[in-house]
Amino acid sequence: MKILVTGGAGFIGSHVSKLLLDLGHQVTVIDDLSHGNQASIDKKAFFIKSSMLDQKKLEEILPGHGAVIHMASLIEVGESVKAPVEFVENNILGTVKLLQAMKNTGVKKIIFSSSACVYGVPKKLPITEDDPLGEQENPYGITKTTMEKFCKLYNKLFGFDVVILRYFNPYGPGELHNPETHAIPNFIKAVLEKKPLPLFWKGEQIRDFIYIDDLAEAHVLPLNLNGLHIYNVGTETGVKVMDVVKTIFDLVDYEVEIDHKGERKGDVAELVASSQKIKKELGWEAKVDLAEGLKKTIDFFKSLNS
Q: How many CA atoms lie less than 13 Å away from 71 in the CB half-sphere?
């Protein structure tokens, strides 16, 4: 199948693109490189530098593709609090322009990269796909819930095949955001540089950390589905952020000073997935445990400095 991957120069998009190519698919990557890294794009993919806001360009690119995997969005929770207009324009307007371009060119299959943040503050754990979407704690969450709603609407109005993947906390080799706002790469970089490690909430937050290779596989399995499907993608294991820090210390066999940053607006205290639905319907499950994934991620960041 010929597949368009939006945001394919990003951390997750580049891994998904590589896996698709390895499985014999043809891949077109579209990315404006505002946050992505062109060096991360597999050389076998056809790359087009363009904004998701350029609907005319999208309509030129789309014909001949069998599906779109849509990952192009701004993702930093803290930044969304500071720049909500930019997040609304990029994430929501960009998604609607993509959907409209797909409609106009007859491409009606989309796999959308959503987030566990759509659940807001969860009423119970683990979170299932049937749980209500909660009040959002930040503009990023509002953009993701709205992007989901537009995907569902195009399924209802125009018969699009839609798969919504609600990620929990991805991590792994290849995460090269600039600036980097995600915890694990910032922890590892601080430790390897023997600098103070930045930590919010004293590391008491609980998260469901999913290794990038496991997450990438979840994008490939639903390519042949028809209709509307929503899946959580997580390990079903909650881990205190402080315990992640301790595991990193154990793996490198030394510790660094912790720079306690206090509270951070927009954070939810606890997020843990139920992934029983995707396991039952698609046979997907997380295979890489946290210690193994952290070791591979540490090795990656070490390799950048060698």
A: 28
pLDDT, tens digit (0-9, with 9 covering 90-100), for 219-267: 999 999 999 999 999 999 999 999 999 999 999 998 888 988 877 766 7
CA-CA distances (angstroms) from residue 152 to 128, 133, 147? Answer: 18, 14, 9
**Annotated catalytic residue within 140, 167, 171, 211:** 140
Band of pLDDT at residue 7, cut at 50, 70 and 90: very high
The answer, yes or no, to whether the previous bond of 126 is cis (omega within 30 of 0) is yes
Task: Enumerate the domain spans of the chain.
Answer: 2-171+209-234
Predicted pLDDT at 266: 62
Task: Please tell me the pTM assigned to this model.
Answer: 0.93
* Stated length of the chain: 306
Domain made up of 2-171+209-234: CATH architecture: 3-Layer(aba) Sandwich (3.40)
Phi, psi of 83 (to 5 degrees): -135, 65
Look up tokens 């990029």; give the residue.
Answer: 90
- What number of other Cβ atoms are within 10 A of residue 306's Cβ? 4
Token pair recorded at residue 177: 């955001």
d(CA 243, CA 246): 5
Mark whether 211 is an active-site residue.
no
